[in-house]
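Journal club prep, shared notes

We agreed each person brings one worked example of a sequence with its structure written out as tokens. Mine is Putative recombinase protein, phage integrase family. I'm keeping it raw so we can talk through how to read the token line rather than staring at a rendered picture. Sequence first:
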Amino acid sequence: MVLLMARPTKRSRSSNRQFRKRVPADVLNVARGQRISFSLPKTHLDDERILVSATVGNEISFSLRTGDISLAKLRHSAALEQFERACAAYRNGPRRLSNQDRHALAGVLYRDLAAAFEDEPVSAEWWRIVQGVTEDAANVPMPTLTRSIEGRKPLTIAGPNENRLQLLERHVGPFLDAILVREGVIADDGQRLELLEAFAKALIDVAKKLKRNAEGDYSPDACAHRFPKWDNNSPKPSQSLASLTFDDLLARWEKESEKAASSKVSFRASVAALAAHLGHKDARQVTRADVIAWKDALIDKGLSAKTINDS
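Then the structure, token by token:
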């Protein structure tokens, strides 16, 4: 029995592993050319993240930025789950977010950064720079067009400033996109500026908090309570990749397979033996080396190559 699983691939002339996934045709029809940002774990040990983005084409691919197999698998798993959430969101179509929704999503960013950096907040100067750059982008004035109408007061028409939008996209957009993908949300295009502004305010607030932490001030964080709870009712992937077990894979295979019942029982016994050898049932953790070690263990028990291949 062969169970095919998505896994990190290796690029020629590069030691880094790569994420590659074919984009379903129905998603490609609505998302081609758009960029998706992924929030990936920086290490095995903490909550700090790295942001990676890629353009939607027939397939989506990007470097996992590590040659370490274990870390690459961790990042690949996170990217795959976010990719499936994004596909589900594209199928469901754009959502119009309320003001409360926008600030609740901004609160996700606030809490993520606070949790990742409050123990070791780099330096006060670093967060002062983050605060200043974001404030500069958020505070670019809106342009006004003023013209007089005979017998009336001057009419002022305000519109979004392209430079302001560009600055917010540059400094805040990657944070916004990563949260939207992770939460499986495709926002209405007309709300982009409002979302960027909400996220900019959250980024400024968390920079102030982390600057205080870097200076040794760990007094209670009153600002965290201003954010509403994010209640995500976006479509979820049918199977959480965070808990993909051998039993899950077997259930899918049995549903699609035309094998006899006796063969299915035999396959279940083989997979149970593999799980016992590994000491776990997490299909995501199985490596080529694990399978080779299991094969060697079966040979040591005196099983023939034919018996092993048939099991």
